[in-house]
Amino acid sequence: MPTVNGTRRIKWKYHDEPTWEPEECLRGCDRALLQFHELNPKKPGPPAWVEKPPALKRPRRRPRNT
Question: Which domain holds residue 21?
Fold first, then answer.
C-alpha cells in the first residue's frame, strides 16, 4: 500500500486495477491498514488517526486437579 502525498494505492478485491485513494477515505479500515503494516514493516506507517486495538490478554490456564 504505497503512499504519495496523503494518498494510498489500493488494490480492491474483485477489481483488476489499483486506485489512488486519499487517506481520509480509508477511515474505518483501521484493521486492514494495521494488518498491511504488520506484514510490510519497511513501508511507511499507517496514518496517525489509525487506532491500534488494545493487546488481548490470553486467559490463564488453570492447573489440572490430579
Answer: 3-39
Q: Assess if residue 10 is contained within a domain.
A: yes
CA 48/CA 56 separation, integer angstroms? 22
* Residue that is written with C-alpha cell 500500500 in the block: 1
Contact 30, 50 (CB under 8 A): yes
- How confident is the model at residue 23, as a pLDDT? 87
Position 16 in a domain: yes
Question: Does residue 26 sit in helix, strand or coil?
Answer: helix
Is the model's pTM score more than 0.70?
Answer: no
Flag whether 65 is in a domain: no
CA 53 to the chain's CA centroid: 11
